[in-house]
Amino acid sequence: MSTKALAIEEKICPLEKAVNAISGKWKIAIVWQINEGKKRPSEFLRGIKNVDRRVLNQQLSEMVKDGLLTKTSFNELPPRVEYQLTDLGNGLLKILWDLNEWGKSLDNSVG
Amino acid sequence: MSTKALAIEEKICPLEKAVNAISGKWKIAIVWQINEGKKRPSEFLRGIKNVDRRVLNQQLSEMVKDGLLTKTSFNELPPRVEYQLTDLGNGLLKILWDLNEWGKSLDNSVG
């Protein structure tokens, strides 16, 4: 492995992590839903097309683990769970808006 | 399909397109290489770790098709081919820098 290749690999690494973190289709949708004021898994299920509860819960857990979301469980009956964006999650949201705008240009250009 | 689901699907669509356009590992690397002044496929091959010529050419073709890159063929012997970012490609590059910075925070947070 050349020094040059290594340098480039290290440079791309944070970017790769970022892309991996947003590559899950529903992760982007979840961030979007929270931005729109939704908090509860049942709201995400209604708001996101073709997502099932198992996949949703898996994605939510990964996002909590990655530090994008915080999960709050309320000691009520029936149990209530809410998610919100962390500062890190809000940083992603800003970039997603930029990406969304850029995606519109891509759309026009591809035609 | 409810109106609500449809609205969200449409809203996410440009963002999904954007994510798809950058999800190919070498596409990000290619944009980065061009930003560093590289232009020719042989330079990309040397600069990107573990990429092969066939995959590289496939990615480059897709990026030209998507309007991210322009390809210029010089009528020389041996034939010379150069790629550069379009305005659309440069728009992506700016976002990739933001995503790269964000990826560093993710790294620290994940630990």
UniProtKB/TrEMBL annotation, chains A, B:
The keyword ATP-binding does not apply. Pfam families: HxlR (PF01638). Keywords: DNA-binding, Transcription, Transcription regulation. One of its GO terms (molecular function) is DNA binding. The keyword rRNA-binding does not apply. SUPFAM superfamilies: Winged helix' DNA-binding domain (SSF46785). Residues 13-111 form the HTH hxlR-type domain. Gene3D superfamilies: Winged helix-like DNA-binding domain superfamily/Winged helix DNA-binding domain. PROSITE patterns: HTH_HXLR. This is DNA-binding HxlR family transcriptional regulator. It comes from Mesonia hippocampi.
